[in-house]
Amino acid sequence: YGSTNGQIFVISDLQANSFPKSTDALPADRFDNVPVIVYDCGRGAVRNAALVGLEVRGGLGVAGASVELVAEVANSSDEPMKDVPVTVYLGKQALAERRVALEARGRAKVSVMVPLAERDMQTGWVQLGPDSLEDDNRINFRIGLRDRIDVLLVRDEQAGIGYLDESFFLARALDPRPAG
Q1: pLDDT of 20 over the 90 cut
Q2: In 91-167, where do the E strands start and end?
Q3: Closest CA to 121 of 151, 90, 94, 150
Q4: Hey, what long-range contacts does 59-63 have (CB within 8 A, 24 or more apart)?
Q5: Are the C-beta atoms of 48 and 79 separated by less than 8 Å?
Q6: Is the Cα dihedral 110, 113, 116, 117 positive or negative?
Q7: How far is residue 119's CA from residue 144's CA, in Å, rounded to a whole number?
Q8: By three-state DSSP, how is residue 50 classified?
Q9: DSSP readout, 70-89?
Q10: Cβ-based neighbours of 116, under 8 Å, separated by 6 or more
């Protein structure tokens, strides 16, 4: 206190047990000319879905292959939500949109296949449609090719010509970078 621009914000559902029976307990000299702003957060149902998780599944990180993005969406309201849009962006382009129905206080998972590009790293995000709280409607991600795959190839002996070696084609199949 002591600031000439001070304000007091009271954020409450305004139930009787949240406040003292009397405001006489507050020292009057400390709160002269200080506005008290009351926000009633118990005003009926709030419609809010949130992205609560994102998992990347599958693949060795090979160029041209795809990985699966699985987003988990939760409904924090007491009412069911229908046709909640879940959009996956890769770069700045929308890659796919799915619609999900959520039971009251329920969760659902949404899956989208994302192709891996020839370059090293791709960025994007998963976005929910608008609702009462925008801050929990987006999750960013970064996916890309692996620099290397640790594999131990066991063979009897190495052939003089590379493609005649019995492990040649297996080694090429496990290399995440395109030949060339």
Answers
A1: no
A2: 93-102, 107-115, 121-128, 138-144
A3: 90
A4: 59/116, 60/146, 60/149, 60/174, 60/176, 61/116, 61/144, 61/145, 61/146, 61/149, 61/176, 62/116, 62/145, 62/176, 63/116, 63/117, 63/118, 63/145, 63/176, 63/177, 63/178
A5: no
A6: negative
A7: 8
A8: strand
A9: EEEEEE-SSS-EEEEEEEEE
A10: 59, 61, 62, 63, 64, 65, 66, 67, 122, 143, 144, 145
SS3 161: coil
Structure tokens at 167: 């492990």
Extract the tokens encoding 95.
């890659």
Please list the alpha-helical segments (H only) found in the chain.
168-174
SS3 98: strand
Residue 13 has pLDDT above 60, yes or no: yes
Structure tokens at 158: 């190495």
- CA distance linking residue 33 with residue 132, whole number of Å: 33
pLDDT tens digits, residue range 46-100?
788 999 999 998 865 666 778 899 999 999 888 999 999 999 999 889 999 999 9
How many residues would you count in the chain? 180
Instruction: Enter the pTM of the model.
Output: 0.60
Residue 123 confidence (pLDDT) above 80: yes
